[in-house]
Amino acid sequence: MTTKNKIFSIAISLSAAFFSAQNNTVRTFNLDLKETSTPIKIQPTMYGIFFEDINFAADGGLYAELIKNRSFEFDEPFTGWKQQNTKTLSPNLDSGFLTIYSDPAKTNKNYARITVLNDKNYILENEGFRGIGLHQGEQYDFSFDLENVSGNIAAVNASLVDENGKEISSVSTLIKRNGWQKYTAVFKAPKTVEKAKLRITFTGNGIVNMDMISLFPQDTWKGRKGGLRKDLVQKLYDLQPGFLRFPGGCIVEGRTLAERYQWKKTIGNIADREYLINKWSTGFPHRLTPDYGQSFGLGFYEYFQLSEDLGAEPVPILSCGMACQFNTAELVKMEDLDPYVQDALDLIEFANGDSGTKRGRIRTEMGHPKPFNLKFIGVGNEQWGADYIERYKVFEKAIHAKYPDVKIISGSGPSPDGEFFEYGWKELKQLNAQIVDEHYYNSPEWFMKNAGRYDEYDRSGPKVFAGEYAAQSVGVLKPDNKNNWLTALSEAAFMTGLERNADVVYMTSYAPLFAHADGWQWTPDLIWFNNLKSYATPNYYVQKLFSNNKGTDVLKIERNGKAVSGQEKLYATAVKDVKTHEIIIKIVNTDTQAKTVNIKPGTLKTGKNITKILLSAPQLSSENNFDAEPIKPKEEIFEAKNGEISTKIPANSLVVLKLKTD
Ligand code: AHR
């Protein structure tokens, strides 16, 4: 190396060392904490849950039924079922066969007629929802409806077989001679199996009709028979959600009007709830799920009950006479809208009417005499344009004429800006709409950049329901989106802006909520599950930290007199909780450098001990999975010094600080 080159190289090394030393210096940011000039209340509904039956969220997910197509109603009625050694599969084997019969008097018309010719050979098998999950030592309620038609079939034998086809548990049920009867038995699982199958054989030859072949874990949420999957509801419960929005999403609208969600068809006797194909079964060519139906075992009564269990306000969303505008965009003519409006009025009566009312009586007969105290109703999901506004007006008039206290949620379309959004907001403002739903699926950068979105919103206009949002690591509708730390961190940054603007933003929810690891259509999703387990994503823990620490009143947290909203990649929000006498500060650092914050509580009286909850990850690309949740809140305690709260906010982290007010 020449002398000149040597000097140059030393200079480069020195300047690199200088910059690296500078980068390693943890800079201190002074923040001031104070009361807002006028009180800003945080609504109890601030952080809630968006539930939609997408990604096997209901059948195959939250609804704990383990048999797919239990009453043979799928368009392809053999879906989920397989016959072995049967004449229809192989003409040389005359063991038996299954045909589908229909009873026109029933809502679910189909049932299976099984002809057993050789009971030694005939086997009927159900594959469950991508397998049947069994937990060692747990009990499972097996039931079916059967009518003995002819011959001498004396018993139905059912067994659970593991992935290798090996029988692990069996029950046998004797058959009575006369009419349709319900039969029940209980399985005990001697081992844990993720993808078991149910196998049915017969003792004796003859013909029987079978329907509603069902298998449920006994260990459901609150131990309810035919209930919900416990681990999944527990995760929702842990969020302490302020509301539960159901049943969607575009599923409310349907691909066609005929396929819209009709709440009246989802209540009453389970076997009579009319089956419907799931909209999402053909939602994406890259993730076709033709075996995705809606049994409505999880129907509107169960949604209300779940809301009550979670301590969340029920927020049903109804069709406004417009099929999904991304699909057929079918429209109900204005003169034919009445039945749709009546559905909304009837729903409010179903939820709130006393037992003397027609719909209140149905609720009472289903086991809930006490009203559900419905306070919100959504008119349409993600509609846009003049057709929506025209229909919304009719709903609004009718609902408020009869139920002036019920708050109506209207929509501003699928995007957070643009022509449809601007038009929707302008019209809804003029109509004095109460709460407007906004949806945003966008990049992590968009979320960080838009943390101040609501700072300038009109305080006298409608309130905002940030009803569907999620940062997309690849792009909207891309199958490879990941629930990684970058997406969660960017949502946390954005959420500081939601909370700071709680006088405008009344409700918020991440979407979608659930995804089955083998049955999903849409990514990313808040909670992932398979037949046995579930795990919480980093995005879930962000939601949990905000929701569990939402407080009751907004406080100001400022740097140099300005809200902390992205300057030097720092975001912050602060609240007090007048019930628990706490101050809660949430700080998000999206920088690759740690920062020290020095918070001065000014005239606010604060205690000494501070709980610091840290959520961070080794990499922005880090994720949780079924085996481990490396990204999970960690807690420690430290003390305030000289009345000031000084702490380090690591690079790329969310920190929640909690302290008592004196
Ligand atoms: O959350 C998935 C879908 O995204 C919802 O069904 C719809 O409202 C939105 O387009």
TrEMBL record:
Keyword Signal in annotation: yes
EC code(s) of this entry: 3.2.1.55
Secretion signal, residue range per the UniProt entry: 1-21
Keywords: Glycoprotein, Hydrolase, Signal
Chemical reaction(s) catalysed: Hydrolysis of terminal non-reducing alpha-L-arabinofuranoside residues in alpha-L-arabinosides
Keyword Hydrolase tagged: yes
Example GO BP: L-arabinose metabolic process
Gene Ontology molecular function, alphabetical: alpha-L-arabinofuranosidase activity
InterPro entries: Alpha-L-AF_C, ASD1_cat, CenC_carb-bd, Galactose-bd-like_sf, GH, Glyco_hydro_b, Glycosyl_Hydrolase_51
Domain Alpha-L-arabinofuranosidase C-terminal as annotated: residue spans: 467-653
Family classification: Belongs to the glycosyl hydrolase 51 family.
Protein name: non-reducing end alpha-L-arabinofuranosidase
Source organism (scientific name): Chryseobacterium bernardetii
